């Protein structure tokens, strides 16, 4: 799916998007590892609600296709970037062991699931 979507755009716009995604990912990772605030407590329902909101908003955009839709697609993209940025912080803190009080942290044996989680966060942020 990612290959099909990226085949539509020019090389320069793709490189710009990859660069922005790398900078945002690096900044959010550093923030998640150095902040004193624990984002693993109580954030899960809000992240789930954010993804459901994005899903419903995207379906509404596809069905109704409103006038001035470029504005609404920009709002949709901004909300998606915000939600998946929060997911990056959340998953990074789970990998660092901040969710152990909830029983949600990743252990040594969960490295594949942890890597897949971060991978999906980055891909969704890129899209």
From TrEMBL:
It is found in: Membrane. The chain crosses the membrane at residues 6-31, 43-64, 70-90. It is a multi-pass membrane protein. The keyword Transmembrane applies. GO terms for cellular component: membrane. Pfam families: Bax1-I. Keywords: Membrane, Transmembrane, Transmembrane helix. Belongs to the BI1 family. This is Transmembrane BAX inhibitor motif-containing protein 4. The gene is TMBIM4_2.
């Amino acid at each position: 799916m990612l290959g099909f979507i990226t085949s539509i755009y020019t090389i320069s716009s793709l490189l710009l998007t990859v660069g922005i995604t790398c900078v945002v990912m690096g900044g959010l990772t550093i923030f998640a590892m150095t902040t004193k605030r624990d984002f693993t407590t109580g954030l899960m329902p809000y992240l789930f609600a954010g993804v459901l909101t994005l899903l419903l908003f995207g379906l509404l955009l596809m069905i109704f296709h409103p006038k001035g839709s470029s504005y609404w697609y920009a709002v949709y993209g901004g909300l998606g970037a915000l939600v998946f940025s929060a997911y990056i912080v959340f998953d990074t803190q789970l990998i660092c062991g901040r969710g152990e009080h909830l029983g949600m942290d990743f252990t040594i044996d969960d490295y594949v699931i942890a890597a897949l989680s971060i991978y999906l966060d980055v891909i969704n942020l890129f899209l």
